[in-house]
């Protein structure tokens, strides 16, 4: 038995080298592969880019039969199958984009044992036709990709995933491997429960990248700030600068070039030949700075990227983590630097408002943005915050800006109480909701037309916040919003409302420390009473 296992392990390594052309497994791929090759169930949590695919692709090639991969990403199936075919792997997919003739071909190939890997969308897999097809062929394993989609509380819930528990009931002897890059502890438990992975071994990788130093600075003159960062901290280093728009990519690349930095642009609007040339220059030559949209980076494996800079706010923590993760793959010190300001918040909020999609979709985008803003505004260790997002605990790292130069904070409890009670009174006494501008006018005691028209000067909160400027109040507001102490209804002209958490602040049960560096409330006015 042991000898046989040994043989399988050797076969796995041989497949890795011969088929995929890699020298060695990355940690913890080897353990996972051996576990699945031997016929066991596994639950794999690994950050994006760590190499989840090989964890089921290699076992599928080593074990007899076809590896059946359940994936919700229909749009990516073609690419995945193309890439595998190029490596000489016999792969195919079944999904709704195919015509009947092609479906028959794929089914025939599966039944004749001519497929190493078969990708299927979950709703397809659960049809009678597909289940009976699988009954008639030989299955090497089931891989359930994006397994967090089974979680009803997660943001990616797919009802079809709930049906996948049937795999175990129908084929109890076929090993199953569930994989995901995003799962809190609660989600992990839910995945195991719903997929019936009672005996699965969990392989949980750390999401930490200790050699990356995280820094988020206040944006005031972004191009100059970037230039200073590059010339003082990374002269001659290779790195990536991410911008939101194509126009900004081109402007920034030109600006850096004019300053004597070897910078090249990359975005999906550039001619294919130019894109390919710039990418290969970046990969092959030393010290090139790639200025790019997020179109750049997928599948780029350059070990000595010394920095990743963001001139615009990413849409989610996942995106930020994925993009910054391209720095320092060689394990040597690297930096993730970002300039962030109020205009980023506004821009992203507007993009969400204007996006096409239903309410639930917009809410999801909003929640993802909020988590990203929380990371920007935090006065705690950035790494602790980042890892907490992925459900992992860490201690203050000593290698991020907030650890190295702890931001100054001030007690913003009273200021927060003033805003929250203004919002509360408007709602309670008048049944009205307003946006930030009007609420600030009330606090500052400004007799605008609207204030007079609605007699808001008669509210007890009128003028209680004359001690802070409008700009100061906006900064406080932004922090309350990013901390979830105030909700903004973007579909109703950005009106403000209290949240569950507001009450504790209003009642004085909670002290609120705010960041000074981003929200400069000026002098010591914050200590004055109400
Ligand atoms: P994930 O699905 O976890 O996001 P992928 O499976 O797409 O990650 O792998 C990310 C990249 O790492 C791919 O380009 C892949 O070819 C590469 N990779 C994975 N495992 C290895 C390895 N053992 N050696 C070298 N490269 C690897």
TrEMBL record:
Origin organism lineage: Bacteria, Pseudomonadati, Pseudomonadota, Betaproteobacteria, Burkholderiales
PANTHER family cross-referenced by the UniProt entry: ATP-DEPENDENT DNA HELICASE Q1 (PTHR13710:SF105), DNA HELICASE RECQ FAMILY MEMBER (PTHR13710)
Coiled coil: none
Presence of the UniProt keyword DNA repair in the record: yes
Substrates-to-products reaction catalysed: Couples ATP hydrolysis with the unwinding of duplex DNA by translocating in the 3'-5' direction
Protein family membership: Belongs to the helicase family. RecQ subfamily.
Gene Ontology CC: bacterial nucleoid; cytoplasm; replisome
Keyword match NADP: no
GO biological process: DNA recombination; DNA repair; DNA replication; SOS response
Organism: Pigmentiphaga litoralis
Protein's name according to its UniProt entry: DNA helicase RecQ
